[in-house]
Design a protein that fits this description.
- By secondary structure, the chain is an alpha+beta fold.
- Helices cover about 35% and strands about 20% of the residues.
- The strands form 6 sheets. Strands 14, 15, 16, 17, 18, 19 and 20 form a 7-stranded antiparallel sheet that branches.
- A hairpin with a 2-residue loop joins strand 11 and strand 12.
- About 0% of the residues have low confidence.
- The structure holds ligand D41.
- The site of ligand D41 has 15 residues, from strand 3, strand 8 and strand 10.
């Protein structure tokens, strides 16, 4: 049957896409789509070419699977081709493989106990090492199996590759093959460093390994934490080998080559499947990325008998794990509010099967990460789900970005309660300021509200609070004071007596102190000590509410960040409403006289700012000293500042003071001025 114009067009389009991704992968070391997607493109093209052989051309990517050697590295001809591996994507495909093996070997009983050597399928780069008289003379990439690239200078930098074999008895010429990979810890550490230095990071450990091997400068390769496991013998000359693959592996190990410690001999398909399960369960703990397991018929005589078809041996197969990376599209970017008010951007995705489950949400961690990856609605993205880790967006496929997309911004208002969102300079996390008011934070905030150092309601446990919040019985904290004993005693594990006690405890908690109440509000950074300081300094809630940033920083222990938190809290109308309703419900305390520090002293009338690290006291101690002597301490330098006290590593405040001609003191000057 002749191919239609539509099929010709499809075939050409697939070829173009595959060539493009080959180039990205091999030449640029910068992949755009996950492997599984690339494999599907190739499979689709192979199938179309099988159905329509007249469409096959010499330059089709299927006729040259693998890499084109980079022009800068010398090419190497593999005298014995490096074979490829067939894949099994399911148990059925594995059973089919075994059935073919048993049939070809003329087993009548299906060979239930046939010995296989099983090992993890490392996700790295296939490499050939050539030893002459025990000396490493050449390293080469697999390339397309026939022609690879000379990477001798780079493999020599890998610590686990012996430059000279140990012991004796090895063939005069010995070519071994294996996988070069980057262990996950090394990969993470490398990327962390690169990120800090503002350099390019690797998308995954496999790319890192392949990219590192193709460096022209071995000094660069030497800095990469590469490792290599050897998994087979290629060419040999003047020497023999044992009868079983598993014994060959032991021998290679004895000669100083590194082999995978997880390799095992197993019996029949059932043994293979148990091995697959076991490695699958331990996949995340292995320390390196694998994408499946490889089974090899253990007997070399049987291997010879089985031979190969086209480029793949009939005696080996790769049993793949479900792909951990897939492509999908972003339908929305939303912000989730956590129990502590942190906003986390989340990508809502077109559902996709990845890492063994269907995924429709992926975390973007925080707003910086979102902006770094620049994920937009409508984008095609790579999602990754490895092990039990929450799915994440790895990167955007920029070439597939539709026209007219918009950058996603941090919302100004909390998506749950419409309170203002606050992000303190230099912090990765943005937070809702709604605390007790915000539904997402209510249960957590209420647990804090009733805790021992706050309003101290005895007998109101975390479980009960969560139940009551879920039932919307505590949609406002003041609802606490309207809980009746009937509704409480009707609950599981809550008798009349404990319900009575709880109602009494709630009632008693109305009488409190300003410090406890402030602490109970759950303002970020306002712990018990800070709440106590604020309460005694200002004496009344109203005074704290009315205090400016400058006034707040007068309080011992309160710096600019804490002051900002307090201001943001009281600027939020929702929070004032919550307080109002609590007071209406009968919460009360005795107010006291403000105990503002300013005593008369040598520093009376003078305003100070403190910055940097002082030689013998902390900034808080310096602040206390200034206040004891009648001075005032504020958080930022302005024309009203009289003195800047600067220690080591003073930054922008010092520069500002100099530009405003504010007098700068060191610790000794301060001590002198304070007359101590
Ligand atoms: O871990 C691997 N990636 C791996 C790859 C392995 N453990 N064994 C392998 N065995 C072979 C044969 C059976 C052909 C000796 C392989 C590969 N081949 C292989 N790697 C890349 C292409 C083929």
């Amino acid at each position: 049957m002749n191919a239609s114009a539509a099929i010709r067009k499809k075939v050409e389009s697939l070829r173009e896409q595959i060539r493009y991704h080959n180039y990205r992968y091999h030449s640029l070391d910068d992949i755009e789509i996950p492997d599984a997607e690339y494999d599907r493109l190739v499979r689709e093209l192979q199938e179309l070419e099988e159905e329509h052989p007249e469409l096959v051309t010499d330059d089709s990517p299927t006729q040259r699977v693998g890499a084109e050697p980079s022009s800068a590295l010398a090419t190497v001809q593999h005298r014995l081709p490096m074979l490829s591996l067939d894949n099994a994507f399911s148990e059925d495909e594995l059973r089919d493989f075994h059935a073919r093996v048993a049939e070809k070997l003329e087993f009548e009983d299906g060979a239930p106990d046939l010995r296989y050597s099983a090992e993890p399928k490392l996700d790295g780069a296939a490499v050939s090492l050539l030893y002459e008289d025990g000396v490493l003379v050449r390293g080469a990439t697999r390339g397309d199996g026939t022609t690879g690239e000379d990477i001798t200078h780079n493999v020599r930098t890998i610590q686990s590759v012996p430059l000279r074999l140990l012991g004796e008895g090895f063939p005069r010429t010995l070519e071994v093959r294996g996988e070069v990979f980057m262990p996950r810890a090394g990969f993470e550490a490398y990327n962390k460093k690169a990120r800090q230095a503002g350099e390019k990071t690797f998308v995954n450990p496999r790319n890192a390994a392949a990219g590192s091997l193709r460096q022209l400068d071995p000094r660069l390769t030497a800095e990469r934490p590469l490792d290599m496991y050897v998994y087979s013998v290629g060419l040999i000359d003047e020497g023999g080998l044992p009868d079983y693959h598993s014994e060959v592996i032991k021998l290679l190990q004895a000669w100083g080559l590194k082999t995978c410690p997880e390799s095992r001999v197993v019996n029949g398909v059932e043994g293979c499947l148990r091995y697959y399960e076991d490695i699958g369960a331990r996949r995340d703990a292995l320390g390196y990325d694998i994408d499946g397991v490889v089974y090899k018929v253990d007997s070399l005589a049987m291997q010879r008998e089985l031979g190969f078809i086209s480029r793949a041996p009939r005696w080996a197969i790769a049993h793949k794990f479900p792909a951990q990376e897939e492509l999908t599209t972003v339908e929305a970017v939303e912000f989730q509010v956590g129990r502590t008010g942190a906003l986390t951007p989340v990508a809502r995705l077109a559902p996709v099967f990845v890492g063994g489950v269907t995924v429709s949400n992926a975390t973007l961690h925080n707003i910086d990460e979102l902006h770094r990856k620049d994920v937009r609605v409508g984008d095609t993205v790579i999602v990754r789900r490895a092990g039990d880790v929450i799915p994440e967006v790895v990167k955007v496929v920029m070439s597939r970005r539709p026209s007219k997309t918009r950058r996603v911004h941090l919302p100004k208002l909390c998506p749950v309660c419409r309170s203002h969102v606050e992000r303190i300079d230099g912090e990765a996390v943005a937070r809702c300021t709604g605390g007790l008011y915000c539904k997402a934070q209510r249960a957590e905030a209420l647990k804090h509200f009733v805790s021992r150092k706050a309003l101290d309601v005895d007998g109101l446990g975390a479980k009960l609070i969560e139940q009551l919040v879920a039932e919307e019985r505590l949609s406002d904290p003041s609802d606490l004071f309207r809980l009746g004993r009937e509704e409480l005693s009707s609950r599981e594990r809550m008798g009349d007596k404990s319900a009575d006690n709880l109602v009494r405890a709630i009632d008693a908690s109305r009488s409190t102190t300003l410090a406890r109440f402030l602490y109970a509000l759950g303002i970020r950074e306002v712990g018990e000590a800070t709440a106590t300081n604020l309460a005694s300094y200002f004496g009344s809630l109203q005074a704290i509410q009315d205090a400016s940033l400058d006034e707040l920083t007068q309080v011992p222990d309160v710096g600019p960040i804490v002051a900002q938190r307090v201001r943001s809290f009281f600027e939020e109308q929702h929070n004032l409403d919550v307080i109002e309703r609590l007071l209406e419900s009968g919460v009360y305390w005795a107010e006291s006289k403000p105990q503002q520090v300013a005593e008369e002293g040598p520093l009376t009338g003078k305003t100070f700012v403190i910055t940097g690290t002082l030689p013998s006291m902390t900034r808080d101690e310096a602040k206390a000293l200034i206040q004891r002597q009648g001075g005032k301490v504020t958080g930022s330098v302005s024309s009203k500042t009289d003195f800047l006290v600067a220690g080591a590593n003073a930054g922008s405040k010092l520069a500002k003071a100099q530009s405003l001609k504010v007098k700068v003191l060191d610790e000794a000057d301060l001590l002198e001025l304070a007359a101590v």
